Amino acid sequence: MTVETKLHLIGNAHLDPVWLWRWQEGYAEIKATFRSALDRLNEFPDFVFTCACAAYYKWVEENAPEMFAEIKQRVAEGRWVITGGWWIQPDCNLPSGESFARHSLYGQRYLLEKFGVMAQVGYNVDSFGHHGMMPQLLKQGGMDYYVFMRPGAHEKTLPHDLFWWESEDGSRVMTFRLADSYGNWASNGMEDKIISHRNVAVASGHAFMSFYGVGNHGGGPTIENLKLIHEIQQRPGLDDIQLSSPNHYFSEMREIDPDIPVIKDEMQMHAVGCYSTHSESKATNRRVEHRMLTAEKFSTFANLTLGLPYPLEALNRAWENVMFNHFHDIMGGCSIKEAYDDGQEFYGESLSIGAKAINAALQKISWSINTMKPGVKSLSKEKDWQLWEQDDLGSPLVVFNPLSWEVEAPIAINKKLAGVTDAAGNPLPIQTIRASRTNTSDKWDTLIMGRIPAFGYQVYWVYRDKACDPMEPKGAVRAEGCFLENNKLFVELDPDTGYIRHVIDKLNGFREVLAGDGAVPIVLDESHSDTWGHGLTQYRDEWGRFCNAELKVLETGPLRATIRVISHYGNSVLRQDISLLHDSSNLHIKVRLDWREHHRMLKLAFPVNVEQPRAVFEIPYGYIERPANGNEVPGQMWVNVSGNEPGTAEGIEPSVVFGLSLINDTKYAYDVLDNELRMTVVRSPIYADHFGERDEQSEYMDQGVQEFIYILSPHAGSWQDSGVVRKAYELHTPLQQVWETYHEGNLPQVSEGIVISAENVVAVAFKPAEDGNGWILRCNETYGREVETDLVIPVLNRSWRSTFGKCEIKTFFIPALEHEAIQEVNFVELKNINEREMSNED
Fold first, then answer.
1. Distances from the Cα of 531 to the Cαs of 327, 347, 441, in angstroms?
2. What pLDDT does 349 receive?
3. Which among 460, 432, 489 is positioned nearest to 738, based on CA atoms?
4. Residues 512, 501: contact at Cβ < 8 Å?
């Protein structure tokens, strides 16, 4: 007679490769733990071991190949079960959406290549929170199930520990929340845990999972653990306890199909301070994620058009570094100080690889553009020691746009010039601006506004001495005293505090954007918080504010006007350069903060002039609306607060009419209370302080200088009407420049690389397919609105039409052979189950 399993005991070893130790110690611990697990498999014939993270297996393969061979054998037997098809167990709020895609791509393909299997179960038992788009990312990564532990029951109430988790696009994964720890540090208490979990299973009417094994610094199941389990199994009525794996458990649950709830929500919050700790690593992560995508796009374009070899091995190595730094105790900012020195080395290698790939691709492309001018016989530098300009023919400057739409943006040219034209010869307005150098009298650059085609480039002709007589710029901007103004915004600063007193939206009925002073630097007390922010939901204990402001006009227009505001608090200095471009409704603020406080937090506050506010935050490959209750929450590049016209009668159905977007290039933590939006700028807890004994030798985070940029963008209508998604990408993905000279070439002076007809579809990644037989284009819908769109890639001579559902991510495989149909694949670049194909329209 078959005994129905009530409790699946999951033997595992949670391994933090970095936390209170550096990665080298984690490397050694992984080998020791894997050896211990193999020993248990030899000693106990019924033992099954579970372990995640492709990175660990790669380390063992490289350093202990004989043990790796043993693991392969045990995987083939089914007794070593690989879960978590990602490179590492990442923080599940901070990496970008595309980074999650890469965890699946590189993690699952490694597992498939080395073991012949892919992980079926997503596995993040120690991550601190989980964003609401996780189900789609898991499904796209080949995983139908998910296991997590945090937030626990005391932090988030769920109707059931086993449930269907659904994301905004409709994707579902069967998900299990651990009732308590992923391990046991001793057999003391393990018996109570097993009996308790079996009782939960009996009460639920279906089986339950219980995890055991020494964790964090590795270890895994011990001999004593397994002896105790065997002893419990021999007791009357307890033979329904089984040594098992998450794969076996979910397979059983899928078969019996229990009546479990569907939950459409994010899984938050556990450690609210982790989204603002260690500013440097978070800022670097944001920068490297975008640089890698730019490197891939232009390397692909240069390979397709000019045959430049694609730097596959180097870029893959760079991604492995980035993914490793996504580990939750690294990105979460709760590791020891030395770990962040190591992390910056990993990031540094990836940034360097990305920069070299971008440079090689752009130089190859720019050198192939026809920039020859009549009368030029050969290159000669008689006119200028920097430029190759001859007579007054101009010098070519090639400007590249990595994004999938036309971008109009300021371009700073590192030379003082008399005139600039576009590729068609149209004169452009220019402005002389301060350079970063102070080289005798040579300390000036030139600013223009450029318009660059989607995923393309344009050649600009710059003239050292020849003026080009441009038209007056539309909506010219000016700065005077405490005021900035163009044709769309009027901005007034308080001369004493430096706060933004007024922002008047001239386009929308001269509406006052703020309900009070904005950009207010509020200092909060956080001495009651550990590094993680355990047990907290908010940071709102005000301690003081920056004040004693000094204001100075730096730029007066006509293309850009800037006022510098310097204010002080304690030993800290905050400098904000507040800029307005001509014909722009965005206020651009460049910040330099010299922070010298301990156990304090700095937030910038913006009261938005709306009622019945709705707060929407970007999350990886999606967005989420959260209550405006003042809780500290994670977000990515942007957050938006929109609402009704002030004075709307109570009880009137909300109809969003106005709002404010805040975009920034390095920060991940926010709170919104009623109509006030706050961005968390910096925290200064002690490194890896879990309510420990603090003394004079404790070291504090984020001491010293950091720089970042944020943008305030008022708008009419809802957040989808604000253009915030494109504006955020434009801030993070700057235009690239290459100085050129005169030469023949087979490329034109203006080029467009992609055309997408739908405004709410963004092409995030364009790269060669991993199998080398075509190319990959990944796009996502960004507004939460179903749309049909045309997609055209001229360099591939391909065009097709596709329908995107709400928040849907699509990965297109474009075969090298033009007669073969374009296919939809998943993140792993394998065909989706429905194997849909797009028809070519060429």
1. 16, 22, 48
2. 98
3. 460
4. no
Give 817's contacts (C-beta < 8 A, 6+ positions apart): none
Tokens of 198: 């079996």
Query: Angle formed by the axes of helices 312-325 and 54-63, to 10°?
Result: 120
H-only helix segments in 335-411: 337-367
Domains and CATH numbers, the chain: 7-270 (3.20.110.10), 274-368 (1.20.1270.50), 395-471+735-739 (2.60.40.1180), 478-732 (2.70.98.30), 754-842 (2.60.40)
CB 446 within 8 A of CB 413: yes
Task: Burial-class residue 368 by CB neighbours within 10 Å (0-12, 13-18, 19+).
Answer: middle
Share in percent of the chain as helix, strand, coil (round to 5): 25, 35, 40
The predicted model scores a pTM of: 0.97
Cα atoms in the 13 Å half-sphere on the side-chain side of 166? 10
Residue 699 backbone phi and psi in degrees, to 5: -105, 135
Q: How many other C-beta atoms can be found within 10 angstroms of the C-beta atom of residue 550?
A: 12
Burial class from Cβ neighbours inside 10 Å (0-12, 13-18, 19+) for residue 794 reads middle
Q: What is the pLDDT of residue 744?
A: 97
d(CA 623, CA 679): 17
Per the CB < 8 A criterion, the answer to whether 60 and 71 are in contact is: yes
**Closest Cα partner for 13 from 81, 114, 113, 66?**
81
- Report which DSSP code applies to 794: G
Full DSSP string of 189-232: THHHHHHHHHHHHHHHTS-EEEEESB-BB--BS-HHHHHHHHHH
Q: Name 39's Cβ contacts closer than 8 Å, sequence gap at least 6.
A: none
As beta bridge partners, residue 167 has: none
> For residues 801 and 841, is the Cβ–Cβ distance under 8 A?
yes
pLDDT at residue number 817? 95
| pLDDT at residue number 187 | 64
Taking a C-beta distance cutoff of 8 angstroms, is the pair 131, 168 a contact? no
Please identify every stretch of the chain with a pLDDT value under 50, giving residue numbers as ranges. 1, 833-842
- How is residue 747 annotated by DSSP? B
Q: Is the dihedral of CA 79, 84, 86, 89 positive or negative?
A: negative
Residue type, 194: I
Reported in sequence order, the residue ranges of 273-418 that DSSP labels E, i.e. its strands, are 395-400, 407-413
What is the Cα–Cα distance from 661 to 714, expressed in whole angstroms?
6
Residue with structure tokens 């994010």?
A: 266
- The reported pLDDT for the residue numbered 647 is 75
Q: Which of 177, 164, 178, 110 is nearest to 141 (CA)?
A: 110
For residue 565, how far is the Cα from the chain centroid? 30
- Owner of token pair 């879960």: 83
Q: What is the pLDDT of residue 836?
A: 37
Beta carbons within 10 angstroms of residue 157's beta carbon: 7
Question: Residue 716 and residue 722: Cα distance in Å, rounded?
Answer: 7
Q: How far apart are CA 88 and CA 106, in angstroms?
A: 10
Residues 6+ apart with CB under 8 A from 734: none
Strand, helix or coil for residue 540: coil
User: Are the CB atoms for 334 and 276 separated by under 8 Å?
Assistant: no
**Of residues 75, 85, 71, the one with CA closest to residue 30:** 71
Contact 240, 5 (CB under 8 A): yes
Q: Exposed/middle/buried for 726, CB within 10 Å: 0-12, 13-18, 19+? A: middle
- Contact of 616 with 625, CB cutoff 8 Å: yes
Report pLDDT digits (tens) over 4-33.
Answer: 889 999 999 999 999 999 999 999 999 999
Backbone dihedral angles phi then psi of residue 352, each to the nearest 5 degrees = -65, -45
pLDDT for 837 equals 40
